[in-house]
Amino acid sequence: MRTLVTGGGGFLGAVLVRQLLARGDAVTLVARGRYPALEALGARGVQIDLGAPGAGLSEVAAGHDVVFHVAAKAGVWGPDEEFTAINVGGTLNVIRACQEAGVGRLVYTSSPSVVFAGGDHENANQDLPYPASYDAPYPRTKAEAERAVLAANSPGLVTTALRPHLIYGPGEPHMIPRLRDRHQKGRLRIIGNGKNKVSLCYVDNAAVAHLQAADRLTASAPHAGKAWFVNDSEPVLLWEWVNALFRELGEPPLTRSVSPGVALLGAHVASGIWSLFSLAGEPPITPFAVKSLSTSHWYDIQPANQAFGYVPLVDGAEGFARTVAAFRAESASV
């Protein structure tokens, strides 16, 4: 199979590229920069800014069977126009390139945050509605992009969207480093009673879900034109999982807590100050982060299993062990 992966040098994208190469697929890696290690394995690297119209993506996409659109701007804070340009504009450019180049299949990496309205999701499925408003530009723009991908589904370009939740694993660059940094600086608190349950998705599981979805994606497939939650088989208690990670990495467990109401008030005040004075960096906490860290959000993966055969490669215990080993090794090498 001839595949193109946008954002193929990123955390999830690189694992997806490696899985594709391992099974013998031809891979074109599209990103802003070069990734020599992946190119050495056999990937063809092409440097393109997806947010720039007329960047030549149609010509690069020509001759490919499937495009995996993984690239995105992530984060809980930042200029709305940057999220819009990359997440929405970049996705529209990918859709257009697929249509112009005659690519038959498009698998989009979405996020459960596109349906997060601030409350609990418990064993939820793909029927959750989009909320009327969002607390941050990331979920808003990812939702707009997801809708565009699903609306583009047609006999000529069959599309689907996957929503991996809280991707973790060796080399994870966002969630774990941020939690550790805030904990080490004494700025992290358990928000709420610490019993909120969440789904996690080990990076290899997120990647294989993309392969499984693409392999069975036809115009008549049950997952065509729809979005699907993919994650590890069993949810975890978020703060117990975080504290277990801290203990394994030689750091004291987190014990101090704050109520969601107090945390949310502080987040609104901090966000207002940062916005009013255009301060550099991001606030210590945002409303979106407070709601995400204090609620339960775990998802049923049986629909994905039934639709396209999604089965996690790695169970949660093994994924946790691999992640701990990798971060320990990284700390030892510094």
Name the features.
two-stranded parallel sheet; 16% strand; alpha/beta; Rossmann fold; seven-stranded parallel beta sheet
Commentary on this structure:
The chain is α/β, with parallel strands linked by helices and about 325 residues long. Helix content is about 45%, strand content about 15%. The protein contains 12 helices and 15 strands. Strands 3-2-1-4-5-7-12 form a 7-stranded parallel sheet, sandwiched between helices. Strands 6-15 form a two-stranded parallel sheet. Helix 1 (about 10-20) packs across helix 7. It is globular, with a radius of gyration of 20 Å. About 45% of the residues are buried.
Précis, in short:
With 334 residues, the chain is an alpha/beta fold.
Please write out the topology.
Blueprint: E1 2-6, H1 11-22, E2 26-31, H2 36-41, E3 44-47, H3 57-61, E4 66-69, H4 80-101, E5 105-109, E6 121-124, H5 137-151, E7 158-164, E8 167-168, H6 175-184, E9 190-191, E10 197-198, E11 201-202, H7 203-215, E12 227-230, E13 236-237, H8 238-248, E14 257-258, H9 260-277, H10 287-294, E15 297-299, H11 302-308, H12 316-333
Parallel strand pairs: 1-2, 1-4, 2-3, 4-5, 5-7, 6-15, 7-12, 8-11, 9-14
Antiparallel strand pairs: 10-13
